[in-house]
Amino acid sequence: MTTHHDLVIEAEGLTKSFGTTKALQGVDLSVARGTVLGVLGPNGAGKTTAVRILATLLTADGGHARVAGHDVAHDAQRVRQSIGLTGQYASVDEDLTGRQNIVMIGRLLDLRAPAARQRAAELLEWFDLTDAADRPAKTYSGGMRRRLDLASSLVGRPEVIFLDEPTTGLDPSKREDMWNVIRSLVADGSTVLLTTQYLDEADALADEITVIDHGRVIAHDTPEGLKRIVGGQTLEVRPSDVTRLAETATILAAVSAAGAPEESRKGLLSVPVSDGDALSATVARLASAGIAVTEMSLHLPSLDEVFFTLTGRTSSDTTEEVA
Amino acid sequence: MTTNTAATNPAADLTADPAASPPSVGPLRQGDASGSGVVVAVPVAAAKPRPLPLLRHSLTLAKRSLIKTWRTPEALIDVTLQPVIFLVIFVYIFGGAVAGSTGDYLQFLLPGILAQTIAQGAIAIGVNLNTDLEKGIFDRFRSLPIPRSAPLIGAVLGDVVRYVLVTISTFAIGYAMGFRIQTNVASAVAGCLLAVLFALSLSWVSVFVGMKVRTSGAVQGIMFLLVMPLSFASNVFVPTGSLPGWMQGFVNVNPLTHLVASMRGLFLGEPIGNHVWWTLVWCVGLVAVFLPLAMRAYRRKV
Fold it and tell me: Residue A322 falls within a domain, yes or no?
């Protein structure tokens, strides 16, 4: 691998086994400075293992990796000075208050006490935790805990941020909030590696996406490139009146680039669309034709569909291997 | 990448937009030229490295233990009520039979109960660390540029408070029951310090077991099996001379025997011999063997 000066994370041929389970079987990852890499894969694909190796929590069996210019195996302390890690489950001390958690991290990062307190106040404010700052973290809601966790990993102003499934378990509105936080981190110049099980999340946040399965990289592309392979958005419409299915199909065919819709389930028409205006155009045409609908949605392929396209099997075949 | 230009709430349910109103970050703000200022990536650690990292980081983490202790006072029962109950039971039930009078037996027994409770108090740290390790906070510690041993050393140091409490409650009930120091305050304090030092050294056995076994129940069980013979096959409850000869061999090398004999010397003015030195040798030995073992087990337990 040629070392590119602008690559903040570069991993080559990472392997890791736990007993007889091969969690990683030669994974390459690279992330350029100031960009977001989405690592997409089902449970057990090896995402968390890869993050733990890059964040120096685990040692790889084979391959090598550099983060922020330092080798993760031989120069782990230097790597740790440059990274922030937000785990799949929140890495906060539940018996400590939010403020005590962040001050403790600040002290461990060699801030003097007043500076650590100031940094804590700043981050608590930014993450809207000021009101809850002096309550034990065990009283926090799931979303607050995630925010505290992320705040804790930002104390040292890390150059590289690892986010391991940052929105798993969050309700949709909190998920959107977390996305906005991540966007502002990137706007501030951070480099982010984010793992996710959702194509829409990777699509919303990442500059490039690496899809891994069974510990191997099965695709690496930009979100646009990946969507070209696995298909873009799908519009689904279910008319209330089944007898008007044919009319609805004609309208959908007109807005879609791909032509005639298919009836994916009984009474439900689905058609691939590429144009962002397709939804509103469809709504307008359905309204003027006087067709009422009981269901209408626009969505990206699910992880199952992505995997089916890429591997010919569903991702559920691969789950529950290594957490 | 989708950029949501309408996103003015970068952090959760925020009402303020940091990009629009960067918070003042004062002296921390070295080196960042743009951005909101709160999270800006600065390609070095947040502050210059300062000397003695292991000590400072361990103390920071000891403070964490203290906060946790403060929040869960019920976890202090083993070091506060237990010595009280043991002293009362043993002095009033066995005192007459063992020493002829409860008063004489109290003088004899108090240093022993202190040593026994302190040894049992060391069980808790292994149990706690075993459960702690499953929680995410240890991932956080591992991802920070701190010495790997700092979280364990911090936890052990944080337990000093527990051992000081043992000492205080043992002496408080002892004095109420009629125990009197026969030497002087300096000797008594030295005896207490020796007991606390021994507890900190013995903690490393508990930490090692806590790192090695899978459940906290197993830590408790194993440590109890270790501590019971140490407390009973010793001079804690009866004079060594009254024990069968074959057992005296063990009793005479038992670290608790040396600790108790040292305390009897320092509290009551009894002949002290080499017991203090042997106690110190045990302390050094326990730390020298079990601290590295515990660290190795901790590194492997991911």
Answer: no
CB within 8 Å: B302 and A109: no
Sort out which chain B residues have CB atoms less than 8 A from A96's CB and list them.
64, 67-68
ipTM of the complex: 0.77
Query: Pairing state of beta strands A160-164 and A191-196?
Result: parallel
Distance CA B200, CA B11 (A): 44
Q: Do both A203 and A264 map to the same domain?
A: no
Residue B174 and residue B268 in contact, taking contact as beta carbons nearer than 8 Å:
no
Tokens linked to A255: 């807005």
Å between B189 CA and nearest CA of chain A: 32
E runs forming strands in chain B? none
CB contact under 8 Å between B7 and A128, yes or no, is: no
CA nearest neighbour of B13 among A138, A91, A181, A90: A181
Q: Which residue has the higher pLDDT, B7 or B265?
A: B265
Q: Please, which pLDDT band fits residue B77 given cuts at 50, 70 and 90?
A: confident
Task: Mark whether A211 and A243 lie in a shared domain.
Answer: no
The residue out of A228, A254, A270 marking a domain boundary is: A228
- B181 CA to centre of own chain: 26
Q: What is the mean pLDDT of residues B176-202?
A: 94
Is residue B175 pLDDT above 50, yes or no? yes
Give the residue, A199 or A229, on which the prediction is more confident. Answer: A199
Is A309 a member of any domain? Answer: no
- Cβ distance A108 to B68 less than 8 Å, yes or no, reads no
**B48/A126 Cβ within 8 A:** no
Residue span of the structural domain in which A13 resides: 7-228
Kindly report, residue by residue over A61-84, the tens digit of the pLDDT.
999 999 999 999 999 999 999 999
Handedness of CA B50, A186, A195, B12 (dihedral sign): positive
What mean pLDDT, rounded, does chain B reach? 83
Question: With bands split at pLDDT 50, 70 and 90, how would you rate the model's confidence at A106?
Answer: very high
Contact indicator for A197, A27 with CB cutoff of 8 Å: no
Count Cβ–Cβ pairs < 8 Å, chain A vs chain B.
Answer: 196
Which of B2, B18, B34 is facing A126, going by the closest CB pair? B18
Within 8 A by CB and 6+ apart from A279, the residues are A235, A273, A298
The residue ranges of every structural domain in chain B are 51-300
pLDDT band at A15 (very low <50, low <70, confident <90, very high): very high
pLDDT, position B275: 93
**Contact state of B10 with A183 under an 8 Å Cβ cutoff:** yes
Q: Is residue A320 part of a domain?
A: no
Give the pLDDT band of residue B80 (cuts 50, 70, 90). confident
Closest CA to B236 of B252, B270, B260: B260
